[in-house]
Write a structure and sequence with these properties.
The complex is a heterotrimer of chains A (412), B (644) and C (145). Chain A is built from 9 helices and 23 strands. Chain A has helices at residues 11-23, 45-49, 55-58, 65-68, 129-138, 152-163, 184-196, 283-297, 370-379, and strands at 3-7, 28-32, 71-74, 79-83, 88-91, 96-98, 101-104, 108-110, 123-124, 144-148, 167-172, 199-203, 207-211, 218-221, 226-228, 231-234, 238-240, 269-271, 310-315, 318-324, 335-342, 347-354, 357-364. The chains are: A alpha/beta (412), B alpha/beta (644), C alpha+beta (145).
């Protein structure tokens, strides 16, 4: 009987488990997690913090999931190192678990800037359910909060806390919010929506110090300006949880390096999700990687064709999706941008093409056909014949039927 | 497919439908099934086919197109669609009125001609001289020392001018209470010329003219008023003059009036001028003799739809049925000829008549079928035409397949012919013709109020059900019901148009009145063109005093529970524009796609003209709404509550 | 297992299927009332016109559904027996991941309710409303293998 070990109990880990089980009904599968909860959706904790979903809805698999799939679940245990030579993992409490194949899906953790006061009480990331619960428990005594970082986590935290009635200031180092996801105009759209709903955004600023004796009292900006707050949420990016492989001889560079079978340099050790290098931190990508890794661990040989940066967010009724290359250098002749913007309707649509092939998209307001664009990007379809249709309001799947790989079955 | 009992409450109809089904003959109900589901854009009035940039439709559920290619929004589109229907409905009744006025003009000419040659026999004459003179005076013609031909010449000229007038006011507007006339003038609703209002309304609805739904509605109201207080009223008045003013008369109704051993001739449509001659021709001894020679016992002339109402109330001619029974009359297998004129003649009649020996004969150059026998009717060949048609029927008798004849036995008595002159005069007794007793009855609360229940049938609703349930509920609550058209026939079939109905169905107050005067609780006022009689009668009620100063003050309400025709919309709109609260059943106007227009029609407009629309698909709710409105008006007049 | 397909030659683009779909998913199930509902029932089907042909478009219930993989709340599940992507609206948070990845653009984000809408083959009814509504028989509802 084969023995599989999965480190990490989130998107990639669970997808891997399900994939293994779909191929191998009898193998022993052990999941080790340093958290205290069964599988929950990390992306949804900001909804939980905002009070929009109840805790039980975060658990995206039924209660009997582990039992039904005959899985061994070890919670509250941190793996301290992987020992590929002996095909085992060693935990902090020195217990050991052997494996035939290992999947590392330890994810990432918030990156805290090295500034004075960063170790104070009342400074949080927003990565785990535990984080959300701790922040939530302080809400009754919190009037105002500073969010460090205008990325996805920072803004999700800001949105959630604003929804809970707290005064929110977001300090953003760059000149726009969501610089990792959006171009300037789309960011400006969203910025207006956030500001209209009472979130204060301080662009081009950085927090240099967190002030307070014991409890937090204020933050200080690079400009010298100081403003009061009693809590800080940090959303300044993440770093992969790779401590456990540091001495294992597994190749890393800003994350674990995997080949297109999601294998590390050690053949029976796989990795997927946010812990991987150059992976885009996104739920569907983690799931896809976990699923393929799982299948490959169970004996398949399925090629992963690489992840594509994409994301979907919505704040205060304005949905925004970005896919692929969303920003090009000004004057770069290799790229062509098609844009349409209607501030009155709150819609924005930008397509980035390279040699008549779609490489990136930003959609704000109207997002319905996002998946059609995603397909065009993935399939690298020459769009010269339908270029004039791409920005049309009624552009959709029927426009590309003649161009895509799959033979049409639904329209006869 | 629904059960036969769900298609009609009328037993004769059920029987005939069963026969149609057994013989695999398709009727309107089958065709309705084939049309399911009907287009939602059409039902909501959010489809526009006005110009060739379209057709356009407005998504009623959200994010699809909210304006047409030209930029028209759903308010404009729905208002234009409604307005066009109003124009068509007004045209139908008014063109009918024009034809009748034209008959009067020809009658004058023929009279002159006769004087000159002394040989020509014309078929029409002045039957109601009193009314003739009264109408002449109303148009400023002094009838003294003038021959009837001279008066007819002058009067018909004046009447025909009403159609072509460009300025001024339609003469019959003077019949409305002063206050109403002033309101119309203030709102610019007073119609100037019948044809002009139709043309102007159509103009405003073409691409790129009127985009203000309220303004479109205003123009539509003016057009509708030109029908109610113009074209329709002319039709009614002149028909009374040349065909005779109806008097209360007993008759029989339903398919059972077809007779197995007789040559059965059915007249169907709306204009009674030819049917009048058909009635005479059916009694022509020569033709009766011919019929007997073919083995028939005689000639039996009956009617369908409003032509039936017309010949019923003038001659007591039996009524075979209302709108939805036109095909079924043929399905009995006992009809030799169906003679049709204009309006509400189903195109399907040709197909159904082909299943039998029945000859369908069209008579109006305006209304023909491909492949159907046409005998063109003009008034100088009227009697000859009628005879030729009856003769064709008699000669068709031997072709009847006796094996396939099955006439439902159901028939019912009714009393018809309560015109505005007789309706209420009768309440005052023969020698004291006044509206006072009616007004007194309402003031005292013995009568709660008046209701006009009118309109068509519609297979979307169980045939006759809404008419009868609604009317029964109204008379139960001491509301005197005035009826026209197919609605009157529906209630007649259920025995509501006989004096005995008062005892069975009416509330105590209404019962007392009916018994004292000897009238039914439900009064038959004529064809749908005769809805104008209700307007005149209501004006008399106001003139009599005690019930306010305007039509909108009267404790009264109107309803078309099973409507289908564009004419019904126009009638509804001229009632509303005259201040009457009016309910439409079956399905609402095709305006619900526009919230603004719907709200205007059912709410805001009451503040403008004193009447408004309501839509309901439940006859008891309709009754409740009407009674509530009547009570509201009673309260406003500070009348005592209803007595019982 | 039955599924929807379309005879494009027969589609006149009348959008009757759109209305029927909206109506079938309304609270009142009555056209005249449905258009007055507070939360309008949006059609899950749309007709697109491309080069003179009309294409009714709605969820195809792919067996390798990208939306199911992308769903982070666990509200989407592919039901093998029914041949359908099942959507548990009570678990859905409106993250639009499914919309982002649907290769057919067949999921309609209802921004008002924050629920993505898709064809549910009219659930318990023996025939979807759009099939009944199509006046030309362009929408085909038949067994697929």
């Amino acid at each position: 009987m084969k023995q599989f070990v999965i480190i990490g109990n989130s998107a990639a880990g669970i997808a891997a488990v399900e994939a293994i089980r779909s191929k191998d009904k009898t193998a022993k599968i052990t999941i080790i997690s340093n958290e205290e909860y069964p599988v929950y959706c990390r992306c949804m904790i900001s909804y939980y913090l905002a009070g929009e979903v109840k805790e039980e809805k975060l658990f995206y698999r039924p209660k009997d999931f582990y039992q039904k799939n005959n899985l061994e679940l070890i919670l509250n245990k941190k793996v301290s190192r992987v020992d590929p030579k002996k095909n085992r993992v060693v935990c902090e409490d020195k217990t050991q678990v052997g494996y035939d194949a290992l999947f590392i899906a330890t994810g990432a953790r918030p990156r805290f800037p090295a500034i004075p006061g960063i170790k104070k009480k009342g400074i949080f990331g927003l990565r785990t359910l535990k984080d959300a619960k701790e922040i939530s428990s302080l809400i009754p005594v919190t009037k105002s909060i500073s969010v460090l970082g205008g990325g996805l986590i920072g803004l999700k935290a800001a949105y959630a806390l604003r929804k809970r009635g707290i005064e929110v200031k977001v300090v953003v180092k760059s000149k726009q919010i969501l610089s990792q996801m959006l171009d300037n105009p789309a960011a400006a759209f969203l910025q207006k929506r956030l500001e209209d709903n009472g979130i204060e955004l301080l662009l081009g600023q950085d927090v240099t110090e967190i002030i307070g004796e014991g409890d937090i009292q204020a933050v200080k900006l690079g400009s010298g300006k100081v403003f009061g707050c009693s809590m800080v949420v940090v959303g300044k990016g993440v770093e992969p949880n790779i401590d456990l492989v540091k001495e294992a001889g597994i190749d890393c560079k800003d994350g674990i390096i995997v080949n297109n079978l999601l294998q590390t340099n050690i053949p029976n050790v796989y990795a997927g999700g946010d812990v991987c290098a150059s992976s885009h931190a996104l739920w569907p990508i983690a799931v896809e990687q976990g699923r393929l890794a799982g299948l490959n661990m169970a004996g398949e040989k399925i090629i992963y064709d690489g992840s594509l940066g994409m994301n979907s967010i919505e704040f205060f009724g304005l949905p925004v999706i970005s896919l692929g290359i969303y920003k090009t250098k000004e004057g770069d002749a290799a790229y062509e941008e098609l844009k349409v913007c209607d501030p009155k309707e709150n819609t924005y649509k930008k397509l980035v093409l390279k040699g008549n092939i779609l490489v990136g998209v930003i959609l704000a307001g109207k997002i319905k056909n996002s998946g059609v664009f995603l397909r065009l990007i993935r399939e690298k379809i020459d769009l010269s014949s339908i270029k004039d249709r791409l920005l049309a309001d009624d552009f959709g799947c029927p426009d590309i039927l003649d161009l895509v790989k799959d033979k049409e079955k639904v329209y006869v | 497919m629904s059960k036969i009992e769900e298609k009609s409450i009328d037993l004769a109809t059920q029987e005939a439908l069963q026969k149609a089904q057994d013989e695999n003959i398709k009727t309107t109900w089958d065709r309705l099934d084939c049309q399911q589901p009907q287009c939602g854009f059409g039902q909501l009035g959010s489809c526009c086919t006005v110009c060739n940039m379209g057709p356009c439709r407005i998504d009623p559920f959200g994010e699809g197109a909210q304006v047409g290619v030209c930029g028209a929004n759903v308010d404009t589109i729905a208002a234009r669609n409604l307005a066009r229907k109003v124009a068509v409905g007004a045209s139908a009744h008014s063109d009918h009125g024009r034809d009748v006025a034209h008959t009067l003009a020809l009658l004058a000419q023929e009279g002159e001609h006769k004087h000159a040659s002394g040989t020509h026999t014309h078929n029409y004459t002045i039957v109601d001289t009193e009314k003739f003179h009264k109408l002449a005076k109303e148009f400023g013609i002094n009838p003294e020392n003038k021959s009837k031909e001279e008066i007819a010449k002058e009067l018909s000229k004046k009447l025909l001018e009403e159609f072509g007038k460009q300025e001024g006011e339609l003469a019959f507007c003077q019949r409305a209470p002063q206050k109403r006339q002033q309101l119309w003038r203030k709102l610019g609703l007073t119609p100037r010329g019948i044809d002009r209002e139709v043309v102007e309304l159509l103009h405003t609805t073409t691409m790129g003219v009127d985009n203000d739904y309220k303004n479109i509605l205003n123009t539509a109201m003016r057009c509708a008023l030109s029908d109610g207080w113009g074209g329709s009223m002319i039709a009614t008045e002149v028909q009374d003059i040349i065909l005779g003013s109806p008097q209360p008369i007993r008759g029989k109704v339903n398919l059972g009036v077809l007779k197995e051993n007789y040559v059965n001739i059915v007249v169907h449509g709306h204009e009674p001028v030819l049917s009048e001659m058909a009635v005479k021709a059916a009694n022509d001894p020569e033709l009766v003799k011919l019929a007997k020679s073919y083995g028939a016992e005689g000639i039996n002339l009956v009617g369908i739809c409003c032509t039936a109402n017309e010949v019923l109330m003038r001659h007591g001619v039996p009524v075979a049925g209302n709108f939805l029974q036109q095909e079924l009359a043929i399905v009995t297998g006992a009809v030799e000829v169906m003679l049709v004129d204009v309006q509400c003649i189903m195109p399907a009649l040709h197909e159904v008549s082909n299943c039998f020996h029945t000859k369908l004969i069209t008579t109006s150059s305006k209304a023909r079928f491909p492949g159907v026998m046409h005998i063109d009717f003009t008034i100088d060949n009227a009697y000859e035409t009628a005879k030729a048609i009856i003769k064709a029927g008699v000669e068709n008798f031997p072709n009847r397949d006796k094996q396939r004849v099955s006439i439902p036995k159901h028939e019912m008595d009714l009393v018809a012919g309560f015109t505005k002159e007789v309706v209420f005069n009768i309440l005052g007794g023969q020698y004291r013709s006044t509206y006072q007793p009616l007004n007194d009855a309402i003031v005292s609360g013995r009568l709660r109020g008046l209701a006009g229940v009118v309109g068509c049938n519609n297979p979307k609703q169980t045939h006759d059900l809404f008419h009868t349930v609604l009317v029964k509920e109204l008379i139960k609550n001491d509301v005197l019901v005035l009826q026209t058209g197919c609605s009157a026939i529906a209630c007649a079939k259920q025995g509501l148009l006989i004096p005995e109905a008062a005892k069975l169905y009416a509330g105590k107050g209404l019962q007392e009145i009916c018994e004292a005067v000897g009238i039914p609780p439900v009064l038959h006022l004529g064809a749908c063109v005769d809805n104008s009689r209700i307007l005149t009668a209501a004006s008399h009620v106001i003139a009599q005093g005690g019930l306010g100063e305007d039509l909108s003050d009267i404790p009264a309400a109107g309803c078309a529970p099973e409507w289908m025709s564009e004419k019904a919309i126009t009638i509804g709109l001229y009632f509303v524009a005259s201040g009457v609260y009016t309910i439409f059943g079956a399905s609402p106007f095709a305006v619900l796609g526009s919230k603004n227009l719907t709200n205007y029609l059912t709410n805001e407009i009451e503040g403008v003209v004193g009447g408004c629309f309501a839509f309901s698909d439940d006859p008891l709710e309709m009754a409740r709404l009407m009674i509530a409105h009547i009570d509201k008006k009673r309260q406003a007049l500070k009348l005592k509550p209803a007595m019982y | 297992m039955k599924s929807l397909s379309y005879d494009v030659k027969k589609c006149l683009g009348c959008k009757s299927c759109e209305i029927a779909c909206g109506l079938a998913h309304s609270l009142t199930q009555d056209l005249f009332k449905a258009v007055k509902e507070e939360k309008l029932s949006l059609p899950r089907k749309n007709v697109y016109a491309v080069k003179g042909k009309n294409f009714p478009l709605s969820c195809r219930h792919c067996d390798d559904a990208k939306c199911v993989t992308a769903c982070m709340s666990g509200c989407l599940v592919y039901d093998q027996d029914k041949g359908m992507v099942m959507h548990d609206e009570s678990r859905c948070v409106g993250c639009w991941m499914c919309v982002m990845v649907c290769p057919y653009g067949a999921i309609r984000p209802d921004l008002k309710t924050k629920i993505p809408l898709r064809c549910d083959k009219c659930k318990d009814k023996d025939e979807p409303a759009c099939v009944k509504a199509c006046p030309t028989g362009a929408i085909i509802w038949k067994e697929t293998l």
